[in-house]
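in:
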């Protein structure tokens, strides 16, 4: 079971961090929320959509040399950052980005493992506040 930590930003908005059961940070919110309630809805969306994406293999790989097959929302996207590391983004059914990997992965398999970890750890998580 993972843990979501809700944090209040200096501007008074909210965002979240997802920790795996080993306390490793595996995802962060890709947006800020105006209320704590909206942030909690974002957390629920991560759990629901990440699990569906893994179960249905809804992964769009933007690192391929050829144009990737378009995958409908919800989906995970794999992409390369400026340092050449693999990262992921999770999109909800409405097309909004809801979570991203904070750190890059050296291999694509490592990145896919990170996405699976989000799906597992976001189900029935502990939710705390920083």
């Amino acid at each position: 079971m993972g843990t979501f930590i809700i944090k209040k930003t200096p501007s008074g908005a909210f965002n979240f961090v997802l920790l795996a059961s080993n306390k490793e940070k595996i995802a962060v919110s890709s947006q800020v929320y105006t209320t704590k309630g909206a942030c909690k809805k974002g957390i629920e969306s991560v759990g629901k959509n990440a699990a569906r994406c893994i179960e249905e293999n809804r992964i769009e790989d933007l690192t391929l040399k050829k144009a990737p097959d378009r995958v409908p929302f919800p989906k995970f996207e794999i992409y390369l950052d400026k340092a050449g590391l693999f990262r992921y983004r999770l999109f909800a059914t409405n097309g909004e980005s809801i979570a991203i990997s904070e750190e890059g992965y050296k291999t694509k398999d490592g990145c896919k493992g990170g996405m699976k970890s989000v799906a597992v750890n976001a189900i029935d998580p502990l939710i705390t506040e920083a």
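note: The longest helix spans residues 36-55.
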